[in-house]
Amino acid sequence: MQCVNSILQVFGKASGQEVNLAKSVVVFSKNTPMHIRKDISEGLGIRCADKHEKYLGLPSAGKEILIKVVLQAIPTYAMGVFRLPDGLIQDIEGMIARFWWNSGDRHKIHWLKWNKLTTPKMLGGLGLRNLRAFNTAMLAKQFWSLLIYPESLLGRLLKARYYPDSSILDAELGSRPSFTWRSVLSAKPVIAGHRWRIGDGHTIRIWIDPWIPGNPSFRPSLRLEPLLPPTTVDQLFASEGGDWNVPLIESTFPPHDAQAILSIPVGRTGFQDDIIWHHTKSGSFSVKSAYHLVCNIDHMANPSSSYSNSTSSRAGWMGIWNAKIPNKIKAQDSLESADYNLFLTICWSIWWCRNKEWSEGTCYKPDQVISFACSYLNSFTEIMASAPNFNTTSVSSSWRPPEHGFVKINYDAALFLDTGDFGIGIIARDHNGNCLAWHSQRLHRTISPEIAEAWAARAAVELGCRSNWDKIVIEGDCANLVKQLVTHEGYTSSTEVIIRDIFALCPRFLSSSSSLVRRQGNCVAHFIARSAINFAEGHANLPPHCNEHLLADMPSL
């Protein structure tokens, strides 16, 4: 019993939620002898009871967890196959609403609409599921599986029955459809969020298929006759391969479309085109992203809905949830962060002291309330500051030479905000810090910083191939990209094309690896990238005005 009491005391001190022994009871099995019952009851300081007493009800936080984890999870499997009738969904949501607002058998007032409860927390709601939207998202997952895996048993069965001469994207309801097929096909509008990722470009029809990420429909805004050349995306590539035919694209498409097309990275390894989900970074379908897409579509159809994408509202609520204060104090954006945290803590301490006065008769003066809040927040801040961070890794802040026989190739990318272009800078050095080669290039197109970094990394590996080096280490300061290169995981749909090229080139070396360095240790490559407009690429010594940046790395040798 001492061990159990010790565990309860440790839990109470750590969580601030101590067990009220006076209001607790212990219930034993009929087979438990009376002397054992007496020993346990006296050891714990809890009275015995013959049966469970009436429970006073879950707190709001407990109800929320129970609804999300249990009640809303029960119909999940059925929702993945069938479209539940609207009446059934209303009954389930009504039952959940009654459970949320009621504390007993009596019917109580529902103070908020159900739509408000299903609004995400970042927008001021409770974050409960909209079951109708969730049902659609689950059915969209089945539709996506049939689209990506047409050779599956279910895919071949449905294709033979409902769309033998077309793809599922062109399928119709047909005659005498089954309830399952009718349900799955009802999620077809959601799959409008798919698009093609360009590989070899042979299968993507320019004027018909969705493939341009910068356009709302993912298709060219100006649609020409499908039979007029060019008809497939591969006809838009340059004859030497590996990039777009810029003059052809600028003469074929409107300026906006041309800019969006040129921002798409093109692979050089010739893998096949594939379909990706636009609404996730990885390009893989997720029920979560489909659910939010359905909610956004419903909001556009019904602007009075509580589900809104207001930037100011989202920023305000995110500010509350991201405040660095104890979770129980979190309950919008003009205060400094320190004042903001103190304000929320004072609000909580006023509530805490009021409860103390009501339950224990202890009265606190205003200055005592403020003093308690300051002390509480300072203690929490000190504890959080001293907590170990297990996600940090040792990253060098200065350039370090490679091992003997290796060549370290540093790369970086720079965006030019005035024109939207980007430049890449690459420098290769041996174990003595001597410059073996460098490369600079400026591309006149608008892309994201992550794609620019991946582009520079690919150019670094290509430089190693052209120079016939056997052992290389490519090093950059983009943590996300380096993580993708090292772990072969976490690819984004926009960078995976380039990363595939990098992995395809690596077997040409006896040894190849990737490492991360902070910006201070990558200053030479960064300067070359920033100066990409001022000098052309080269493979000998650096230009004179780059030597000072090169010498800055020498103390680390």
Given the C-alpha coordinates, what overall shape results? globular
Secondary-structure element order, N to C? HEHEHHHHHHHEHHEHHHHEEEHEHHEHH
Biggest sheet character: 5 strands, mixed
Strand content: 5-15%
And the CATH topology of the largest domain? Nucleotidyltransferase, domain 5
Strands of the widest sheet, in order across it, are 7-6-5-8-9
Top CATH class of the largest domain:
Alpha Beta
The CA-CA distance between the termini, in Å, is 63 Å
The percentage helix is 40-55%
Task: Give the tally of structural domains.
Answer: 5
Number of helices: 20
The count of strands amounts to 9
Describe this structure in words.
The protein is an alpha/beta fold and 557 residues long. The protein folds into five domains: 2-49, no CATH class; 59-196, no CATH class; 199-272, no CATH class; 327-386, no CATH class; 407-556, 2-Layer Sandwich (Nucleotidyltransferase, domain 5), CATH 3.30.420.10. Helix content is 42%, strand content 9%. The protein has helices spanning 2-15, 34-44, 60-71, 76-79, 86-101, 114-117, 131-148, 153-162, 179-185, 246-252, 255-262, 287-301, 311-321, 337-360, 366-386, 449-466, 479-487, 496-505, 523-530, 547-552; strands at residues 25-27, 47-49, 194-197, 274-277, 407-415, 422-429, 435-443, 471-476, 511-516. Strands 7-6-5-8-9 form a five-stranded mixed β-sheet. Strands 1-2 form a two-stranded parallel sheet. The chain has a two-stranded antiparallel sheet with strand order 3-4. Strand 1 (25-27), helix 2 and strand 2 (47-49) form a beta-alpha-beta unit. Helix 14 (337-360) packs across helix 15 (366-386) and helix 16 packs parallel to helix 18. The longest helix is centred in the middle third of the chain and has 24 residues, at 337-360. The chain is globular. Residues 410-532 form the RNase H type-1 domain. This is RNase H type-1 domain-containing protein. It comes from Sesamum latifolium. Pfam families: RVT_3. One of its GO terms (molecular function) is nucleic acid binding.
